[in-house]
Specification:
This protein is of the alpha+beta class. 31% of the residues lie in helices and 35% in strands. The protein folds into two domains: 1-35; 36-192, no CATH class. It has helices at residues 3-35, 137-151, 181-192; strands spanning 37-44, 56-58, 60-61, 65-67, 79-86, 92-98, 108-116, 123-127, 132-134, 158-165, 168-176, 179-180. The strands form three sheets. It has a five-stranded antiparallel beta sheet with strand order 3-1-10-11-12. Strands 4-8-7-5-6 form a five-stranded antiparallel beta sheet, with no helix packed on it. Strands 2-9 form a two-stranded antiparallel sheet.
Amino acid sequence: MSSKKFIIATFILVALVQLYVPAKMILDQKKILKIGTEFKFKTAPVDPHDPFRGKYITLNYAENEIKVPEKENWITGEPVYVSLAIGKDGFAKIKSVAKEKPGNNVPFVKAKVRYVTDNGSNQLTIDYPFDRFYLEESKAYDAELIYQQLQQDTTQITYALVSINNGNAVIKDVLIRDKSIREVVKANQEKKK
């Protein structure tokens, strides 16, 4: 093979790999959205100084702690498997946390240990991999304001609808009183006109 043919073949191969990687990521996300089990994660107030970084909402979840027997067995940043159930209120509840992948038919998400409290309560705090919800640029600022206001009103229920499949998770939407934050922002923007 001449060097020119080799260079062209290499170029085509690199181009195909560059197309394959993002396409695979998108298809994997779509697959989770299509076949995953949906959980509602009730959101909690976020740091009011930096709720947005760019064009997404930073989400924190009310259900992100579980008591563990011995805090020494858990390391900050360590990957864990969080088994989930749906509580009586319809929201996701942590059933257990383990270092090993749970058995079949147990809904779980791969997450990380944020920290374990050092005050004797042994509360393990979890960092979920779905803490950002991306929005269109035109709606981001209004969504930020609405989200901040509602997080301070305890009568308003705000949650993320998350699709989970085999440990992987994708946020489908953020809902306020069972209405998509996109629709709430759109309605507010139309009122201002």
